[in-house]
UniProtKB/TrEMBL annotation:
Protein name: PKD domain-containing protein
Stored InterPro entries: Ig-like_fold, PKD/Chitinase_dom, PKD_dom, PKD_dom_sf, SprB_repeat, T9SS_type_B
Signal peptide residues on this chain, from the entry's feature table: 1-20
Organism: Niastella populi
Annotated transmembrane regions: none
Length: 602
């Protein structure tokens, strides 16, 4: 759309004559183009008639314009000095106005509210329409909106007309504050007969109306309107005081404060026993009067609370004399207290030791009584036997594990029972017994005089065998070879884990010399533990025997007088080669000879 041009009456034209010149009258016809949207797009075009041409122009613009048309003008008043050829001057003045087609008329209903209420805002565009509408604060679009300001606010409506120009208008909304109904009650909890003060702490104007509620049942001693009030309730109870304020048409919320009025408590307690043994308990119960919200304060005087809370009943354990004190404070009422002493008789200290805690049946155990503060004793030895001796000795005849309990008493009521930290353990005694193969009293040649012993002992932990030939063994079931003829006795000693012993002997073991010498013809001295030596059973029975072994070259590789050690397959400490070797055995003084060969295997 093109800007509208206006032809109108000139604001001011002043002409001046040049010295010595005759100035002809001039006529100035302006054409003014308004500034659209108030921007720098207005202009003034002058048409000059009369006078003496040519003309010069000088506008009061920045920068100075010097043509008949001044362009790019914002709204304002402009001057132009026009000079003709004769030096005659004419001053022209006129105004560039702002082009405005549309105006806005906003309204607020209601224009005055209480804080928190709503206002309907609307707008009417006059002289045209706008392409958009925006309300601020809030940046809300539309011609009709609802707002809830909390303080007095000027709402501005803005938009653009068909020229793209922004059009604005504003409407005020007055917000009246909501009165604050806050108040306090001091003190909030009182004992019956104590006055209280109600003090307004909120905000309101001097014309506000105060609506108090909750003073029923109280004597208002002083106060009106906003207060402060001095009140006195006549009955113990919990009350609620309320306040609501109406101020300049605005109504506050309801403020509430609870008020507690209590009666003075009465302290009383019951204790089921006042004399007890150390470690016993008493039952305690509050029996006085108080409100349901008040809790007694207990001092147990060294007692240990096992159970209970509040008013009780409580189970209290005492080891020494104590004093129970109960104090009751109900609200801010004066405290009341009650007390009861508890007398405690010390318990005797039961203690003992035993001279032994293990033994083999039958075993006598001596008990040493180390108890204190006792005058009577009862022993339970764990085997259905009892005693009232102070320092008893008890004989256990049967194996078993026996707990020993001592009850020490002081008077008739207070007792202490202790069970020994170690049980008395009575073990069955060990029983030594054995048999063997071959049997006793049967002559056995030396080559066959190897006896295998079967251990039939009971309850034994360790064993020691004595074979009667100077040898012994600690195996459970040993095997023994007698190397010389003779009659032997074998004795077995047994011991259990606590040192109890038993023994048994058998005999005679009859060992005779071999009638015929049996000589093995091979052995394997390879260190595997099997046949590593050339053993000739029965040869030991001939202490005067001689043994010589030769290789195939007739060289002596082993010789001995008497048969102390069997040949181990070595010559001078080194193994002989695998092969056949030859032996000569002289049995004894009778010079009976045995010859033959033996094979050395590796």
């Amino acid at each position: 759309m093109q800007p509208v041009k206006y032809f109108h009456t000139v604001l001011l034209i002043v002409s001046f004559s040049a010295q010595g010149q005759t100035c002809m009258p001039v006529t100035i016809t302006p054409v003014i183009t308004p500034a659209v949207c108030g921007g720098g797009n207005g202009s003034i075009a002058l048409t000059v008639t009369g006078g003496t041409a040519p003309f010069t122009y000088n506008w009061n613009t920045t920068p100075v314009q010097t043509t008949a048309t001044a362009a790019n003008l914002p709204p304002g008043i402009y001057n132009c000095v026009i000079r003709d050829a004769n030096g005659c001057l004419t001053v022209f003045q006129d105004e560039v106005t702002r082009r405005s087609i549309v105006s806005l008329r906003p309204t607020a209903r209601p224009a005055t509210i209480c804080a928190g209420e709503t206002v309907a805002l609307s707008v009417i565009a006059q002289g045209g329409t706008l392409t958009s509408y925006t309300w601020n604060p809030g940046n809300i679009g539309g011609t009709n909106i609802t707002v809830s300001p909390v303080v007095t606010t000027a709402y501005t409506i803005s938009g653009q007309d068909a020229f793209g120009c922004e059009v604005t208008a504003s409407v005020p909304v007055t917000v009246k504050p909501i009165p604050n109904a806050a108040f306090r009650v001091t003190p909030a909890t009182v004992c019956l007969g104590t006055p209280q003060t109600v003090t307004f702490t909120g905000s309101a104007t001097g014309t506000a109306v105060f609506n108090w509620n909750g003073f029923a049942g109280a004597a208002v001693q002083s106060g009106s309107g906003a207060g402060p009030y001095n009140i006195l309730f006549n009955t113990a109870a919990t009350y609620t005081i309320q306040l609501q304020i109406t101020d300049n048409g605005c109504i506050s919320g309801i403020a509430r404060h609870p008020v507690t009025v209590t009666t003075a408590p009465v302290a009383a307690i019951s204790v089921d026993k006042t004399t007890i043994c150390a470690g016993d308990t008493v039952t305690v119960q509050f029996t006085g009067s108080k409100s349901n919200t008040a809790a007694p304060d207990w001092n147990w005087g060294g007692g240990n609370v096992l159970s209970g809370s509040g008013d009780g009943p409580f189970k209290i354990k005492y080891n020494n004399n104590g004093l129970i004190v109960c104090t009751v404070r109900d609200g801010i009422c004066a405290a009341a207290s009650a007390s009861q002493a508890v007398a405690v008789t010390p318990l005797p200290v039961a203690a003992f030791i035993a001279d032994k805690i293990t033994g083999c049946a039958p075993v006598a155990v001596k008990f040493t009584n180390q108890s204190k503060q006792a005058d009577f004793y009862m022993w339970d030895f764990g085997d259905n036997e009892k005693s009232i001796e102070e320092q008893p000795v008890h004989l256990y005849t049967s194996p078993g594990v026996y707990p020993v309990t001592l009850t020490a008493s002081a008077g008739a009521a207070c007792t202490t029972i202790i069970t020994g930290s170690n049980n008395i353990e009575v073990l069955p005694p060990p029983v030594a017994a054995f048999d063997n193969t071959p049997d006793v009293n049967v002559p056995i040649e030396i080559s066959m005089a190897t006896f295998e012993f079967k251990n039939n002992s009971q309850y034994a932990h360790s064993f020691r065998w004595y074979f009667g030939d100077g040898d012994s063994a600690v195996d459970r079931e040993p095997v023994h070879w007698y190397k010389q003829p003779g009659n032997y006795q074998v004795t077995l000693y047994v011991r259990n884990e606590i040192g109890c012993t038993d023994s048994v002997g058998r005999g005679a073991y009859v060992v005779i010399a071999d009638k015929v010498l049996l000589v093995p013809n091979a052995f394997s001295p390879n260190g595997d533990g099997v046949h590593d030596r050339w053993v000739i059973p029965g040869l030991r029975a001939f202490p005067d025997c001689q043994l010589t072994i030769y290789n195939r070259y007739g060289q002596t590789v082993f010789s001995s007088r008497g048969y102390n050690e069997p040949w181990d397959g070595n010559r001078n400490g080194k193994p002989v080669a695998t092969g056949t070797y030859y032996y000569i055995i002289k049995k004894g003084r009778d010079k009976e000879l045995y010859t033959g060969w033996v094979e050395v295997l590796r």
